[in-house]
């Protein structure tokens, strides 16, 4: 027997190690991506927190005015005194504005809640089991996380078809979608359009992310899935996004393809099976 | 009445700022769109302008640069949810902003900043007004001096009057 050839046990150990290294790489890419998004997410949260906080202080001032009125009920000499106070605190304005103040603040908190829960959905580490999942929900979550990267660059169009639940690791599929969305936004120079399309064809579903960006040149197109290949400036991309997307899709027994016209835009299509094939016992 | 302009792509931000500034009694014009805020610069004179940094159609610095061209006296400020160095440097160097405030803001700090911007605006205006007044008076003075010199050249001694102790005019040529 050739001594350099590893024994089955060693081989098993090596492939387990490789698998573990791959998992770590994927997790670190996810964290890197979240890190890059963090500034944007902070912006998304700072806006609502800003006005809700300020509104609370206005509310305090309003309540102080209202208490002045209610407390005067006991001390006022006549109804006219009360009317005067009511007039002085601009009661009608206060009454109208209180409704808006509360509605707007509720809206702000609601937005923070959505962003936080999207981040949470997104960064799930523990689940790496195939489970039936709603892809549209996953896409919406992802859009919420990357909203700040997109909204100044493009109008996002949702062209969703009817999709069955598909058997997948949704947090990983979300990561693929996030990569495609962020890439699409980076490809757009001024302001463009990003279309997210979903279609179902019986046993398969397809997710497409299409942008009106600069496109990918022919010589780059066959390298985009290579690890560490990037044309982005330092600090903007790790060069791992598409490579990991590729391995995630492969793990799901799907396909990922890119179609690009330089100067007109790029369309990425991810095709995934609805059901994962039964694992062969001798694999 | 002191008029100020607020620009932010988010209406809820503008509403909360309006609530906050209402007790000050200023006329507060709010805009969610850059083009409308540009138009407003042609219609009214503003003491202070507070703009968001990042908006979908144009960034706040570009808007403030335009405002600087149109209304150089209006004091410019940025209210941004990004606190990064690059955006601050751009705001200071390109739009020459008076304050860079961040979201979420502190109510007291924001009101104080707007107040002091308005004060600065009035100070500038007063300064300018006084300078014009000064220039006008100086020009007047200069005209009078020239007239005196002209008269003196025409008939030497005519601009000087000599009087004796009881006030009567003396004629003398030396």
In short, what is this structure?
The complex is a heterodimer of chains A (283) and B (174). Chain A is of the alpha+beta class and 283 residues long.
What features would you describe in this structure?
The complex is a heterodimer of chains A (283) and B (174). With 283 residues, chain A is α+β, with helices and mostly antiparallel strands. Chain A has 2 domains: 8-123, no CATH class; 128-273, Heat Shock Protein 90 (2-Layer Sandwich). Chain A has helices spanning 8-75, 79-88, 91-122, 135-150, 170-187, 218-221, 241-251, and strands at 131-133, 154-160, 166-168, 192-201, 204-211, 255-261, 265-273. Chain A has a 5-stranded mixed β-sheet with strand order 2-4-5-7-6. Chain A has a two-stranded antiparallel ribbon with strand order 1-3. In chain A, helix 5 runs antiparallel to helix 7. The longest helix of chain A is centred in the first third of the chain and has 68 residues, at 8-75. In chain A, 29% of the residues are buried. Chain B folds into 2 domains: 3-123, Response regulator (Rossmann fold, 3-Layer(aba) Sandwich), CATH 3.40.50; 129-162. Chain B has helices spanning 11-21, 34-43, 60-70, 85-95, 107-154; strands spanning 3-7, 27-31, 48-52, 75-80, 99-102, 162-163, 169-170. Chain B contains 5 helices and 7 strands. In chain B, strand 1 (3-7), helix 1 (11-21) and strand 2 form a beta-alpha-beta unit. The longest helix of chain B has 48 residues, at 107-154. With 174 residues, chain B is an alpha/beta fold. In chain B, the strands form 2 sheets. A 5-stranded parallel β-sheet of chain B has the order 2-1-3-4-5, with helices on both faces. A two-stranded antiparallel sheet of chain B has the order 6-7. Classes of the chains: A alpha+beta (283), B alpha/beta (174).
